[in-house]
Design brief:
The complex is a heterodimer of chains A (242) and B (223). Helices cover 71% and strands 0% of the residues of chain A. Chain A has 242 residues and is an all-alpha fold. Chain A is globular. The two termini of chain B are 23 Å apart. The chains are: A mainly alpha (242), B mainly alpha (223).
Chain lengths: 242, 223
């Protein structure tokens, strides 16, 4: 039993329960938006996905710092999986955001919504993470360079948001501010539960991928010591740490 | 510091003798102005459009230098020699960023008059001090981020691809700041001073990435 598999069952159950509750709240409890109607409910999926994705990118940067400071390759794997998962969440956030924009503003893409634009730029930057890893062959150097990239890109996230936000002539009303914003009570509760659901889903998927990668590495090690070096095929070039 | 100056001298001397990078950047910029003339179908540009054309051209021209910045070090064993020498590794970052800065200044000294002649933005003379201030900060952003990205890209197999693909998104905030700061300067009734907001953003970007580059650069050199 690897360390990553520990508590995975409980975490998965908590995720399923939270997401079910969140969906129930979204469809049966949260009031319909007076202005936008039913389509506003995509907010409860889109915003949590985007927030969790950005936190995942920054988490990847923090693991990158830990990797460079300690030289422990496990941190590189954690950083890789954090960014990998955040990318998937980010694409989801971008697509749901685009659908929402189409429904409420009539266009698939609007340039005067700073959060959406910043998000696209961040995603474009992080989309180069895997090509970068793939084009460095030496695994040790790959890990080191990937961590440097993760740190720089993680610090880029807030800076980019400031610049894009200021570049708008006028800014849409903020639904959500740090203090909780002007969201009515039932909507805020639904949103917070949805956010918790997305965060739990991220944590669960992160743990699953870590456990799978860890198990595969252990299996390789065992096979190598049981049947000998030659029987195990050498690793192919890969963007993933191994 | 002495090491950095020595490396910078070597780089500038090499560039002066071989004339590899800067002439290519200048030619690229001139061609880009012609391309923009035809693509936009305008004989003159003003305001934000002119600023956008100028900024995008400088940004893309700098990519040429960024791609080549460390190539000689890698191909001729300069990295190994540098690692063997008992010197601070930050000196290499400093020297390369300074070299890139010098290339960009030379490029701008040639490309700006060409821009003025070819695309005739209004009031270039009156807003020159403001323009110099903005470009000084923009060059700093380009040279810091460019050096960092170049040091990453040069060790990859597809370095000509990885450099721009990582560098361009990273430089978007700097591009926003530069283009928005230059825009008002190129209006037909420009005041001559760039908006302070954008100068501040550029300065913030420069400081953040200078500190980041300083913090992570050593790890790119280990072997």
């Amino acid at each position: 039993m690897t360390t990553y598999a520990k508590g995975l069952k409980g975490l998965s159950l908590a995720t399923i329960v939270t997401i079910t509750v969140a969906l129930a709240l979204v469809f049966f409890y949260a009031p319909l938006d007076a202005d936008q109607g039913f389509i506003q409910k995509i907010f409860y999926i889109h915003v949590p996905l985007a927030i969790v994705s950005l936190c995942g990118f920054i988490l990847g940067g923090i693991f990158g710092i830990a990797h460079l400071r300690t030289g422990d390759r496990r941190y590189d794997m954690r950083s890789y999986v954090a960014i990998h998962m955040a990318l998937i969440f980010g694409v989801g956030g971008l697509i749901t955001g685009s659908i929402w924009a189409k429904a409420s503003w009539g266009h698939w893409w609007v340039w005067n919504e700073p959060t959406l634009v910043s998000f696209l730029i961040v995603l474009l930057l992080f989309a180069t993470y895997q090509p970068l890893r793939f084009s460095i062959e030496d695994p040790e150097r790959q890990a080191r360079y990937a961590s440097v990239f993760a740190i720089v890109a993680g610090a880029f996230v807030p800076l980019n948001f400031i610049a894009v936000r200021l570049a708008q002539q006028f800014v849409h009303p903020r639904v959500l501010t740090l203090t909780g914003g002007n969201l009515p009570g039932p909507m805020r509760l639904t949103f917070l539960v949805s956010l918790a659901g997305a965060a739990l889903l991220y944590a669960t998927l992160w743990k699953y991928e870590m456990a799978a990668k860890d198990a595969r590495m252990q299996l390789r090690r065992l096979r190598r010591s049981l049947v000998g070096e030659d029987a195990v095929a050498p690793l192919r070039r890969s963007a993933a740490p191994s | 510091m002495k090491t950095a100056i020595a490396i910078l001298r070597k780089d500038l001397l090499l560039e002066l003798r071989a004339l590899e990078t800067v002439p290519a950047m200048v030619l690229f910029s001139l061609v880009a102005f012609v391309i923009f003339h035809f693509a936009l179908d305008r004989a003159t540009l003003n305001g934000q459009l002119a600023a956008g054309v100028l900024t995008a051209t400088l940004l893309l021209a700098s990519m040429l230098a960024i791609n080549r910045l460390f190539v000689a070090e890698r191909e001729q064993g300069g990295f190994d020699a540098f690692l063997l020498a008992p010197v601070d590794r930050t000196a290499l970052l400093l020297a390369k960023a300074a070299a890139l800065y010098v290339y960009l200044v030379v490029l701008e000294v040639i490309a700006m008059p060409a821009f003025a002649v070819l695309l005739r933005p209004p009031s270039l003379g009156a807003s020159l001090p403001g323009l110099v201030a903005v470009l000084a900060l923009a060059n700093l952003a380009l040279s810091i981020v460019g050096t960092l990205v170049s040091a990453i890209a040069v060790q990859t197999r597809a370095r000509d691809l990885i450099g721009p693909v990582i560098g361009l998104p990273l430089l978007i905030p700097a591009l926003i700041g530069t283009a928005r700061a230059i825009g008002p300067l190129l209006n037909s009734h420009a005041s001559g001073a760039p908006p302070a907001k954008w100068l501040l953003i550029l300065a913030l970007y420069d400081v953040v990435f200078a500190l980041l580059a300083y913090a992570v650069f050593d790890f790119l050199l280990e072997d």
